[in-house]
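so i finally got all the pieces together for this one. its two components total, 770 residues if u count the protein bits. some of the lines might not be protein, just check the labels. i wanna see the whole assembly predicted at once instead of chain by chain like last time, that was a mess tbh
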Amino acid sequence: MSVTAAQGFEAAGVTAGLKSSGGKDLAVVVNRGPHKTGAAVFTSNRAKANPIIWSQQVIADGVVEAVVLNSGGANCFTGSFGFQTTHQTAEKAAELLGVSAGDILVCSTGLIGTGDEVFRGKVLAGTTEAIAALSADGGDDASLAIMTTDTKPKRSVVSRDGWTIGGMAKGAGMLAPGLATMLVVITTDARLEPAEADAALRRATARTFDRLDSDGCMSTNDQVTLLASGAAELRPDLDEFATALTEVCQDLAEQLQADAEGASHAIAIRVVNAASEADAVTVGRSVARNNLFKAAIFGNDPNWGRVLAAIGTTDAAFDPYDVDVWFNGVRVCTQGGPDRPREEVDLTPRATSILIDLRTGDAEATILTNDLTHDYVHENSAYSS
Amino acid sequence: MSVTAAQGFEAAGVTAGLKSSGGKDLAVVVNRGPHKTGAAVFTSNRAKANPIIWSQQVIADGVVEAVVLNSGGANCFTGSFGFQTTHQTAEKAAELLGVSAGDILVCSTGLIGTGDEVFRGKVLAGTTEAIAALSADGGDDASLAIMTTDTKPKRSVVSRDGWTIGGMAKGAGMLAPGLATMLVVITTDARLEPAEADAALRRATARTFDRLDSDGCMSTNDQVTLLASGAAELRPDLDEFATALTEVCQDLAEQLQADAEGASHAIAIRVVNAASEADAVTVGRSVARNNLFKAAIFGNDPNWGRVLAAIGTTDAAFDPYDVDVWFNGVRVCTQGGPDRPREEVDLTPRATSILIDLRTGDAEATILTNDLTHDYVHENSAYSS
């Protein structure tokens, strides 16, 4: 049910002809209220797609009526024509829904540079068709329509006493860096003020999507949106809400990691006993972005030297000769020297755990990433052809 | 001739049994004087191999008698035993040469974590054998003995009026980040004071090896050494010397790039009209490290959107809608929008040029890198097995 699991929402996913595959490629999610609270976080890339530039204005007042999302074209670096396309998409949805265009978010994903007149025509016609198809069980269709190289839709639902959070996601990346664009829409029927929704969303994404770093490449189109209808007529405990929202975000993040383009391992890098949480994140991210480490995992090689070399490039507090490293539960490095023989490590399962003990404090963090594979190279070299 | 092209130097390369291939794997370069000036720059990785820790002490007084280099084992993260191996190597060379161990540099390259008793025994025996084999035309043998995954030795010689600079290199990486460890030894018969040698070396490496960024991974063992014998009995014009040294370093850097593990393209990313040289380097490096860009080049795809997305992750001065991008001489992006059709770009040649015009100033820099290929993944996943 994804975005229509919570009360007060309708959604649809239709085929606008944007994807060469002929699959669904345009989704609309509408908040029927009574409250129209919205919050969103965006890519931190300074090269932003037109939908990002538009949506950052829309979200400013914390009021969102609907989100229009398309796959099959990123509408990024398409100039003022592309921005007008985004604007016209919002105008079209607003007109049909009887609301203000300034309350319509737009998200796009696909190849950068795609956004000509043909694209515009298909997006506008698809928006019309999707709004005509809106229904209270359209969440699954919407989650299909935002897929690009995803092999399966990503959906998650969590319910608490009287209210529900449901979401959908596409992509294989993360909020900051991203293998492909990550688009996420999460809905709830809990009643939230805009500032409350914004705080909960930032808290949840900081520990979930922000720590998924599949390939270190930052997308121009990433957006995570939270819509709150208040249809359940309940104000949640804000801490409990943020915890439940984090649960949904983590579930979706793990689904994104599991479906990362060309990956053969889903790697969780847990850094413990760091001097600070920031240090733990820095160390985990540095290892996650190290191509030599990632290629070693692809080859089922517990190459702890590459882990230490990656840690050494950071400014985190650590002593290279007081670090322990485990691969899948086997301590292969103790105090910066060899420990158990590499033959004891079985790296054939897809799920891979790396544990790094920095022995400098008591903070920790986990970064999710993937290995570097032949298929990753192939898929990303053939992407636009 | 590499390191024996300049007067006053002897070298040798022998088979110590460290490499499973059975090839030469231990080299010694000796400065016969009359001057024993030395300068060196090292990896900035905080996880440093034992030879780096040792050599950083040796170089402090600017006096170097000889360099002992081995392939077939990095002697990194091998604990105090490994440090003692490095120390004993210097002691052995010093004893046989009749000099102080404190004037012997040691360099190692190979798998991290390799450095047990067998390794030590072979290194010490090989050092003895190499010193017995020293000769004034041993430079070529030395350049063979430092190779690891290199498919060919890297040598360069430049002569000016009365003095010569010659060098050898191994690896496929760079001084800061490095695909594999980069080891370089450069000799000259010009007469230089230690401070002059140090200044010239830093100036030369900053614009050559430091701008070679094959895969963004920083090695634990990188070292570039300059030895000056003064045997030509000439003090060079220092500016002319630094220019000639830069020429040798650039030549060696391009040979490293040409032989990068698994690469199918040698890519020069030239960033022009930047607000500062630092901005130009930052932008070039960000593009050079972007896996999506690198995979696109492998696939002969002029995907300028990935170039702009990589620029957008930096803090360099630029306007995403006032950037031009050329692939192999074809301007595919003008002012952040599409220009010439991608079909006009021929990316089949190995030599690939990317030109990025930031239109914010008049500074420029060029970063050398390689594409991300199936062979890169294969070679680096199989490295230790």
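Residues 238-258 of chain B form the longest helix (21 residues).
The longest strand of chain B covers residues 266-274.
anyway lmk what u think
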